[in-house]
UniProtKB/TrEMBL annotation:
This is High-potential iron-sulfur protein. Homodimer. Keywords: 4Fe-4S, Electron transport, Iron, Iron-sulfur, Metal-binding, Transport. Specific class of high-redox-potential 4Fe-4S ferredoxins. Functions in anaerobic electron transport in most purple and in some other photosynthetic bacteria and in at least one genus (Paracoccus) of halophilic, denitrifying bacteria. Belongs to the high-potential iron-sulfur protein (HiPIP) family. InterPro entries: High_potential_FeS_prot, HIPIP_sf, TAT_signal. SUPFAM superfamilies: HIPIP (high potential iron protein). It comes from Marinobacter zhanjiangensis. Residues 32-108 form the High potential iron-sulfur proteins family profile domain.
Amino acid sequence: MSEHNPSRRVFLRTAALGLAAVPLARFATHSSRAQAQDLPKAEDGHALDYVNNAADSEHEKYQSGQKCESCAFWAGEEADGWGKCRHPQFSDVLVNAEGWCNTYAPKG
Ligand code: SF4
C-alpha cells in the first residue's frame, strides 16, 4: 500500500532543504568573519594619510570629531575597535574605529 499525500511530500522536502541550508549559512558567516580577522591592522600612513588615532592627524582636511566609525566607508567593527573600510585603498587591512584618512565622508 503506497501513500500519496502531495502536501506531506512537499513539507518533508522543504524541511529537508531547510535543514541542509543551516550548516551552509553557519559556514558562510564563520568564513567571512575569519577572513576579516586574518587581515592585518593598518598602520599610520597606510594610504590617504591614514592615522589610527584621528586626533593625531595634522592634515588640513581633518576636523575634530571625524573618525572612521562615523565615515560612510566604515563597514562595522569586527573586534576590539577594528573593522573593515569599504574604500578600495583599505581592502587588505582593518582600520581603527578611531582612525581617519583624507577620504573621510560623513554618513548621510
Ligand atoms: S575612508 Fe578613511 S576615514 Fe573612512 S572608514 Fe575608511 S579609512 Fe576611515
